[in-house]
Amino acid sequence: MGVITAIETQKKHGKRRSIFVDGQFVAGVHEEVAAALGLNVGQTFDRDQLAELIRAETVRKARERALKLIGYRDRSESEIRKRLIGSNFPEDVVEEVVDQLSRSGLLDDLKFSRDWVKSRTASKPMGRTRLAFELRSKGVDAPIVEEVLEALNPEAEYELALSAAEARLRKLNRDDPSTSNKLSSFLQRRGFSWDVIERVLNALFE
């Protein structure tokens, strides 16, 4: 056990504090961490407190990293977990940060999925199969995927497929016998069901 003899502002990082115990530097932390732990000069300090200090600083760094990732674009919980673990943050720290962000509404897989579907269908019309695959690849749980895609009923999916096919057809020769097969393959890659594809082909080649 020792005593905190100094808490100094770092010259190159004004929001960070250097903690000295018995005259020796023991750790550098953000001012928020020092304040949250109530660190003061003259306070006794032991190994357990040092471990707590280091963990609190690690959690802060992980949360800061997660917020930067969310700032670039919305992310699923799974994406944030993978990126933080990939940055060598301990799993317990990652789970704490994900829980914090989820409770604060900054991570919400249901909202993320709804926004993802809306964005994808607006920029590049695609079917339920493709959308479900993309959401699952981002770690979204199956019940959420199913709930979000309920809004994409057969008629809405048909309209998306028709829009995509019409745009594609403008780049093809309608009179070429292979055009129908090309459109069919194109729509399959976009994740539309065969029932929807058949309706579209019938509408375009009646």
Shape: rod-shaped
Measured as a percent range, the helix fraction is 55-70%
User: In total, how many beta strands?
Assistant: 4
* Helix and strand composition category: alpha+beta
How far apart, in Å, are the first and last alpha carbons? 86 Å
Number of domains: 3
Taking pLDDT < 50 over at least 5 consecutive residues as the criterion, the unreliable ranges are: none
Radius of gyration: 27 Å
Question: In order across it, which strands form the biggest sheet?
Answer: 3-2-1-4
**Strand residues, percent:** 5-15%
Query: Can you give the mean pLDDT?
Result: 89
SSE string, helices as H and strands as E: EEEHEHHHHHHHHH
**What is the overall number of helices?**
10
Q: Give the biggest beta sheet.
A: 4 strands, antiparallel
Primary descriptors:
206 residues; alpha+beta; Arc Repressor Mutant, subunit A; 3 domains; four-stranded antiparallel β-sheet; 4 strands; 61% helix; 11% strand; rod-shaped
Any overview of this molecule?
- It is a single chain.
- The protein is α+β, with helices and mostly antiparallel strands and 206 residues long.
- The chain has 3 domains: 1-45; 57-107, Orthogonal Bundle (Arc Repressor Mutant, subunit A); 109-204, no CATH class.
- Helices cover 61% and strands 11% of the residues.
- It is built from 10 helices and 4 strands; from the N terminus they run βββαβααααααααα.
- Strands 3-2-1-4 form a 4-stranded antiparallel beta sheet.
- Helix 3 (77-86) packs antiparallel against helix 4, helix 5 (109-123) crosses helix 7 and helix 9 runs antiparallel to helix 10 (194-204).
- The longest helix has 26 residues, at 47-72.
- The protein is rod-shaped.
